[in-house]
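User: Sequence recovery, please. Input:
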């Protein structure tokens, strides 16, 4: 057929040789080229379209689309393969999932192939899309879908990037929020795949005054000269390619402190502290001195063991000697009245029911004999 078409073009060119039209040959060649391209495009074709790189959040369900249309001339057995393309061209690709002879097969590392399956119940009906039940950072890779039905074969690649959503950020204010001072609002998200973009907005009260500057990378909103015009509620929004979160903080404006009052208060406080310390030291010294004085008095009143006792008087010795010589006898001093009768200086003490024996008292010695 191709030869016939070329011959017809040449024959027409010969018949019109009397009128030279070189463009006619060019038209014939272009027609042949289009026919050849159309003939070469026959066979298995993948019809799915979409971006070459896909970004999804961790934990989501993902479907990598791969649809195909076989040619009537493709009469061989259908063979579908999903594999991970190795970034090293010297290494083999890792086969994950395949379909052949009406059966599905899982290959490779179970940690990577867990949750993988064909999205369609019957991949032989023109849909060979791959379904991933739960995305994780390990699924970030370049995937290849290959559909073969002899003599036709076609394939396509798609890159999957699994990212982490930003966590709920924390908002806080640094600075005393005093009028005329520097105040900074901070916003920070502890989790999330980079790049993270921070943006401050003012809720009510108008937009943020142009004198305030914000850093979209660090999440800081800096106010150099704070005033009442900055008072309000501020919202920080953090975003990345797969999600966004936000937090809020209230900014107030306080009157600046009285510096003279602060200085006076500081001086008075220092003086009071010095007075209290002096009183405590005086009390400590007074207490120690009182204890020392009391100790000296106790020591002076103690009787030393090496000092002899004073001698007793004769009368006391006689009384003691008489008591020791005549036990059980009652004694009385000279001049005391006795309950008896007196006879020339001798006192007779009548006996009583107690059984005491009367004794004689000798005035020369001062004791009974």
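Assistant: Recovered sequence (369 residues):
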């Amino acid at each position: 057929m191709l030869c016939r078409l070329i011959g017809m073009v040449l024959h027409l060119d010969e018949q019109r040789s009397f009128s030279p039209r070189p463009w006619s040959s060019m038209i014939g060649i272009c027609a042949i080229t289009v026919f050849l391209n159309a003939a070469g495009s026959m066979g298995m074709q993948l019809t799915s379209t979409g971006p070459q790189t896909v970004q999804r959040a961790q934990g989501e369900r993902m479907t990598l689309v791969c649809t195909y249309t076989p040619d009537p001339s493709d009469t061989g057995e259908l063979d579908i393969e999903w594999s991970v393309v190795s970034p090293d061209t010297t290494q083999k690709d890792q086969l994950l999932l395949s379909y052949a002879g009406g059966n599905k097969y899982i290959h490779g590392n179970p940690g990577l192939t867990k949750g993988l399956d064909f999205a369609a119940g019957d991949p032989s009906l023109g849909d060979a899309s791959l379904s991933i039940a739960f995305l994780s950072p390990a699924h970030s890779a370049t995937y290849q879908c290959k559909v073969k039905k002899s003599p036709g074969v076609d394939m396509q690649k798609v890159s999957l990037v699994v990212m982490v959503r930003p966590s709920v950020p924390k908002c806080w204010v640094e600075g005393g929020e005093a009028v005329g001072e520097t105040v900074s609002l901070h916003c920070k998200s502890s989790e999330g795949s980079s790049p993270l973009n921070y943006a401050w907005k003012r809720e009510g009260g108008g937009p943020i005054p142009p004198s305030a500057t914000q850093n979209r990378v660090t999440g800081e909103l800096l106010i150099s000269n704070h005033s009442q015009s900055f008072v309000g509620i501020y919202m920080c929004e953090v975003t990345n390619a797969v999600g966004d979160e936000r937090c809020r903080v209230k900014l107030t404006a306080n009157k600046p402190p009285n510096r003279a009052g602060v200085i006076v208060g500081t001086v008075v406080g220092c003086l009071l502290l010095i007075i209290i310390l002096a009183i405590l030291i005086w009390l400590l010294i007074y207490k120690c001195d009182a204890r020392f004085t009391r100790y000296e008095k106790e020591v002076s009143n103690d009787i030393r063991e090496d000092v002899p006792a004073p001698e007793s008087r004769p009368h006391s010795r006689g009384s003691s000697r008489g008591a020791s010589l005549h036990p059980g006898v009652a004694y009385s001093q000279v001049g005391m009245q006795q309950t008896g009768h007196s006879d020339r200086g001798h006192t007779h003490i009548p006996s009583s029911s107690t059984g005491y024996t009367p004794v004689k008292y000798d005035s020369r010695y001062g004791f009974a004999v």
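Confidence is low (pLDDT under 50) at residues 1-23, 25-41, 315-326, 333-354.
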